[in-house]
Recover the amino acids of this structure.
């Protein structure tokens, strides 16, 4: 069973002037897969991410996460699905600035009403794994962008979600920090079999993934699978983007 | 970390944001507590005026608090919308978010109520004692204000709970994707309309000009033709100024800034472009805050100045209306004049009041005392008023207190006198209309004609300020013993009774208005504080970029401080300007004298200095924060 299954999904915005942001799009993510979704601005990639996370209603089609049709869920069930099955990483980290980095990491466990000792222990484990244990007690404004994004990743995976969704996770980082963050994604994918879907416009970021899905006008335009080394994959991505006009 | 700890941390670690709001809430609670303590005190509550006034004030505070909390909590939620969006995205249910908003605000609210009550307990008995002295209670006992505590807790927690529930519900109605996108684009996408901008400025200027409608010929000529306009001039001024101010903040300042942008050569020099364009963005997102702050500051300044002016001029105004400390007027048929005047003299002597008595007659023609013509002998007038008026025979001097007078007056049906001038009024206020000073011989001629009634006035001049207690006691005794007023052929007036009554009424009103004004000033400062702190925080990344471009820290501070200065001082400047015109209006409708400007300056200066000190403190904090932030770079 796929972790994520997107079947013939369409999303139309507006009532008078209709904009077809996603048009009969199908996509699936298997357990342990690491996928990038690429496309030019307005191609529908962010809409797709919002549809998958259940914060945007579908016009037609079906999205299943771990076999559960998210369009049939009520508000409470959708929240529970996001809480238990999904992890999110945002471009601008979206850390809660009144909490420390460690407390931010604990948040998903707090929503699951885990006991405080477990929360603290788990948070420390992930902080150490992502190399931010030294800034565990720091506030968000006291750390660098790379550290903040690593905390955001730890927060996204601490509750062992079925699918990790990342929206331009390297968009606000310098190239060294961006590389570091993507290496973490790749390591999590290989070591912990975390299924991930990363929306990005950066070919370097996408080259860390195993598959890249290119979207144009709300439809899957092309797919690339990584077979050999990263550099070659990067060149392949670039050539598709040149064709798409997005690079 | 439990949910409760999460909520507590999100408030306690965001002290910068909540500080002013919390302090402002405490202050409002304290004022409410003080009013409630006055209202519930067993001795004070026997005074119906105090009880009613304090009840109205309490209700008004709760209504104000509802508005203030709605505005503040809305601003906090707006600022934290991305956080709430992230939490919802991560799986927090809408119910939990609503609970979070509720608990956050109840935490702030309940702590503000608790601290407010403690401060209130310290100060309320002082105000109760002050109020006791005010209504001349010789002794007032201490009563622990249980009822006041109950009212304060119930009243404020209900307001906090209602607003939090309402705002939490409002928040969760916003789609998650909108919340997560973070900052609203209101500031960036709002466009100004040049016509509305000009209309706004015109409305504001017109509103200000209306305050001097007597002095501006073209406005006066329009008003003279339409009495309805004169009657409604105050609402017209308020409407024009409010609409004008809003449009000036919402439209005109942007027209002005755009003009600078396009026309001024200096715009592209010395980094002006950076601070002016940044200011434009900040102004756009601060329109409501600036408008409300300006209105609240204007109301507060005007109320304080007006109350102080009225309170300090009560004695002078009443003395002008009634020149004698004690006045006894005997009309036709008063057989007890001798007995009563003896009583007055006896009471004054017994109470040790030093006085000078003077008796004179007034001739009246007409049944209605307001419209009857009254003649006063020149020698009597001169003796009392300390003047040397010498009207010729057949002439009269108007002492009605009007600015304009007729050329002649027909005293009786057949006798006409020529009016040659005017002098300060002397008779008691209600008898002042159509009163004239004539020569003694003219007076005697009218007296002997028998056409006019004789009213005898017995004036007792005493210093009822220096000997206030003595005169007050004598007056109380006499008021009880002399039957006067409607249905009797006499009138007894003790000036100190009027002064006491007016000082009491205006004092009570002034006390409430003063505390209300302070609430307004504190609330306005709190709204501006939140706006500035928020702006300063949002500006940090931009400051970092400027730093990376090569601007030094002092240069960045200069840019940011200039923006802060405009954002903070613009409402203050408009408030001072609007207050000036409000005072001008009071002078024009003769509700205040030109002395009000001196008093206004005396009252405004400390308030402005307080605001400026507060601003300096904000500036200092911001500078420290910016330096610390850039030091991480």
């Amino acid at each position: 069973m796929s972790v994520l299954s997107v079947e013939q999904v369409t999303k139309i915005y507006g009532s008078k002037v209709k904009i077809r942001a996603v048009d009969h799009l199908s996509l699936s993510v298997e357990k342990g897969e690491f996928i990038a979704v690429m496309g030019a601005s307005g191609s529908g990639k962010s809409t797709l991410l919002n549809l998958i996370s259940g914060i945007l209603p579908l016009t037609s089609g079906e999205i299943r996460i771990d076999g559960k049709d998210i369009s049939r869920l009520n508000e409470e069930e959708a929240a529970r699905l996001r809480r238990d099955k999904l992890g999110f990483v945002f471009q601008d980290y979206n850390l809660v600035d009144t909490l420390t980095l460690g407390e931010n990491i604990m948040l998903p466990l707090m929503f699951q009403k885990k006991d405080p000792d477990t929360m603290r222990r788990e948070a420390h484990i992930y902080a150490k794994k992502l190399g931010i244990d030294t800034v565990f007690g720091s506030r968000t404004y006291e750390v660098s962008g790379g550290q903040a994004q690593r905390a955001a990743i730890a927060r996204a995976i601490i509750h062992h979600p079925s699918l990790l969704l990342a929206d331009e996770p390297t968009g606000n980082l310098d190239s060294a920090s961006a590389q570091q963050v993507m290496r973490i994604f790749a390591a999590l994918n290989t070591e912990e079999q975390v299924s991930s879907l990363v929306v990005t416009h950066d070919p370097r970021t996408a080259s860390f993934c195993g598959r890249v899905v290119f979207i144009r006008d709300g439809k899957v335009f092309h797919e690339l699978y990584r077979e050999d080394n990263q550099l070659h994959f990067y060149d392949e991505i670039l050539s598709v983007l040149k064709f798409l006009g997005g690079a | 970390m439990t949910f409760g700890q999460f909520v507590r941390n999100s408030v306690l670690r965001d002290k910068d944001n909540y500080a002013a709001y919390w302090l402002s809430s405490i202050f409002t609670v304290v004022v409410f507590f003080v009013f409630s303590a006055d209202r519930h005190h067993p001795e004070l509550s026997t005074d119906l005026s105090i009880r009613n006034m304090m009840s109205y004030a309490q209700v008004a505070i709760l209504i104000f608090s509802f508005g203030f909390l709605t505005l503040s909590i809305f601003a906090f939620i707006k600022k934290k919308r991305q956080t709430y969006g992230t939490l919802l995205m991560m799986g927090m249910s809408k119910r939990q978010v609503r609970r979070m908003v509720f608990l956050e605000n109840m935490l702030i609210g309940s702590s503000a109520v608790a601290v407010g009550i403690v401060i209130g307990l310290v100060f309320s008995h002082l105000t109760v004692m002050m109020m006791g002295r005010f209504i001349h209670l010789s002794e007032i006992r201490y009563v622990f204000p249980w009822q006041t505590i109950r009212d304060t807790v119930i009243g404020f927690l209900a307001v906090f709970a209602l607003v939090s529930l309402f705002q939490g519900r409002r928040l969760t109605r916003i789609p998650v994707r909108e919340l997560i996108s973070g900052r609203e684009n209101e500031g960036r996408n709002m466009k100004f309309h040049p016509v509305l901008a000009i209309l706004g400025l015109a409305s504001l200027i017109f509103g200000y000009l209306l305050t001097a409608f007597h002095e501006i010929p073209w406005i006066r000529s329009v008003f003279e033709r339409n009495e309805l306009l004169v009657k409604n001039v105050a609402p017209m001024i308020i409407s024009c100024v409010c609409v004008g101010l809003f449009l000036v903040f919402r439209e005109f300042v942007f027209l002005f800034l755009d003009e600078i942008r396009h026309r001024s050569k200096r715009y592209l020099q010395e980094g002006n472009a950076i601070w002016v364009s940044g200011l434009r963005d900040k102004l756009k997102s601060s329109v409501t805050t600036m408008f409300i702050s300006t209105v609240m500051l204007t109301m507060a300044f005007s109320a304080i100045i007006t109350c102080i002016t009225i309170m300090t001029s009560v004695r002078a105004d009443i003395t002008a209306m009634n020149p004698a400390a004690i006045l006894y007027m005997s009309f036709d048929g008063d057989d007890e004049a001798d007995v009563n005047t003896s009583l007055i003299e006896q009471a004054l002597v017994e109470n040790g009041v030093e006085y000078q008595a003077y008796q004179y007659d007034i001739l009246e023609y007409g049944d209605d005392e307001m419209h009857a013509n009254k003649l006063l002998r020149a020698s009597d007038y001169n003796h009392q008023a300390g003047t040397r008026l010498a009207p010729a025979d057949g002439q009269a001097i108007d002492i009605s207190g009007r600015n304009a007078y007729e050329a002649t007056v027909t005293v009786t049906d057949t006798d006409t006198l020529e009016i040659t001038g005017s002098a300060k009024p002397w008779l008691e206020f209600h008898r002042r209309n159509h009163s004239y000073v004539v020569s003694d011989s003219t007076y005697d001629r009218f007296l002997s004609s028998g056409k006019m009634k004789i009213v005898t006035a017995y004036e007792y001049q005493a210093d009822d300020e220096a000997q206030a207690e003595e005169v007050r006691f004598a007056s109380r005794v006499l008021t009880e013993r002399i039957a006067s007023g409607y249905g009797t052929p006499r009138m007894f007036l003790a000036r100190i009774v009027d002064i006491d009554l007016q000082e009491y009424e205006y004092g009570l009103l002034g006390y409430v208005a003063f505390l209300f004004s302070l609430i307004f000033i504190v609330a306005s400062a709190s709204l501006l504080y939140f706006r500035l702190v928020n702006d300063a925080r949002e500006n940090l990344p931009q400051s970092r970029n400027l730093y990376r471009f090569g601007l030094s820290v002092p240069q960045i501070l200069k840019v940011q401080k200039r923006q802060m200065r405009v954002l903070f001082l613009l409402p203050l400047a408009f408030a001072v300007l609007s207050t000036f015109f409000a005072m001008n209006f009071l002078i024009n409708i003769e509700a205040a004298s030109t002395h009000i400007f001196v008093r206004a300056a005396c009252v405004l200066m400390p308030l402005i200095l307080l605001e400026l000190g507060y601003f300096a403190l904000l500036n200092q904090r911001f500078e420290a924060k910016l330096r610390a932030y850039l030091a991480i770079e």
